[in-house]
Amino acid sequence: MTTLRPYTATTGRILRQLRNDHRTVAMILVVPALLMTLLYFIYQDAPGPPHAPLTMFDRVGITMLGILPFIVMFLITAIAMQRERTSGTLERLLTTPLSKLDLLAGYGSAFSLAAAAQAAVACVVAFWLLGLTAAGSPGWVMLIAMVDAVCGVGLGLLASAFARTEFQAVQFMPVIVAPQIFLCGLLVPRDRLPGWLEAISNVMPLSYAVDALQQVSVHAEPTGAMWRDIAVVAGFAVVALGLAAATLRRRTP
């Protein structure tokens, strides 16, 4: 219990900060749901592929349930950690017995709980209010969205280690996030990409999250491919957290 105390104290502190930051809470919980609603109205009257059981909103919407949490959690985590650094809070914390791993694990746990709430709200809005349809259970979609959001948390923490200001943290978004959106299969199926682009997409976590969601979209029961893809995304999250701990600077330059 003594060894867990720094970790649990950090997790509790971040959760209290989130609770008191109403704008951040709104961005985490409300923005993805609003964007899904906007997507519904965009595709409301769009004809689906002939003889296909799924509408255009079904096909695009289930993919966006993985992409939006990833984007939002990456952005919020990178900015929040950079704010800790520029305010001097991070430097003061690391002069205490709190280890880098305790600090980042606390951040990861707190924002992972926020990611779970975000995935739950977005899926409830999509499936029960907007009528999104998938062959598999919405629970599997919620699980994949949550794991993908946690991966966004890990990459956000890693990106913040290389930024000196909050603006620089935001600048990592087009470098880390945008290529994944382009190559994850949302715009063009990954097997139709040029060979070198498909190879790049194979080392991007968002590609596997989208593949897992597409498995849920067309299969009523969980498939081996779905579990493999979820494991890959979770592995990316663990590696990102480990690299973030290794690159975390004790002193602000």
Can you give a write-up of this model?
The structure is a single chain. The chain has helices at 5-20, 22-29, 31-43, 56-86, 89-93, 100-129, 138-160, 166-176, 178-183, 195-201, 205-218, 224-247. With 253 residues, the chain is mainly α. The chain has one domain. α4 (56-86) runs antiparallel to α6. The longest helix has 31 residues, at 56-86. This is Transport permease protein.
Strands, total number: 0
Q: What's the helical proportion of residues?
A: over 70%
Approximate strand percentage: under 5%
* Mean pLDDT level: 86
Secondary-structure element sequence? HHHHHHHHHHHH
Shape: globular
Structural class: mainly alpha
Whole-Å distance between the termini?
A: 34 Å
**What's the number of helices?**
12
Whole-angstrom Rg: 19 Å
How many discrete structural domains?
Answer: 1
Q: Can you give keywords for this protein?
A:
single chain; 253 residues; mainly alpha; 0% strand; globular
